[in-house]
Amino acid sequence: MWIMVVYTLIVLVGETVTVGIGLVLDRIYPAISLTVSLTLFFSILWIAWMLAVRLTEPKHAKSEKHAA
């Protein structure tokens, strides 16, 4: 359950930044704003999951990785 909380928080922050970047690009380069926004949107979902898994990894699993 904790992993979903961490994932949701990371996604909320990441998507907020993505919306900001999209709005700025829409004023400067309207032709590429949709492409960049969609790419960032889906990238954030994947990156957030990788970060959430890494941040919520159990302590004993981390020590086993270093020992191997």
Radius of gyration (CA) equals 16 Å
The number of domains: 1
DSSP strand count: 0
Secondary-structure element pattern, one letter each: HHH
Sheet/helix structural class: mainly alpha
The DSSP helix count reads 3
Q: List the quaternary state of the chains.
A: single chain
Distance between the termini: 28 Å
Q: Mean pLDDT, rounded to whole units?
A: 90
How much of the polypeptide forms β-strand, as a percent range? under 5%
Sheet with the most strands, sense and barrel status:
none
What characteristic shape results from the CA principal axes? elongated
Low confidence ranges: none
Binned, the helix content reads over 70%
Highlighted features:
68 residues, mainly alpha, 91% helix, elongated
Polypeptide structure, described:
- 91% of the residues lie in helices and 0% in strands.
- It has 68 residues and is mainly alpha-helical.
- It has one domain (2-67).
- The two termini are 28 Å apart.
- The mean pLDDT is 90.
Q: Which helices and strands occur, and which strands form pairs?
A:
Blueprint: H1 2-28, H2 30-55, H3 59-67
Helix pairs in contact: 1-2
Brief overview:
With 68 residues, the protein is mainly alpha-helical. The chain is built from three helices and no strands. The longest helix is centred in the N-terminal third of the chain and has 27 residues, at 2-28.
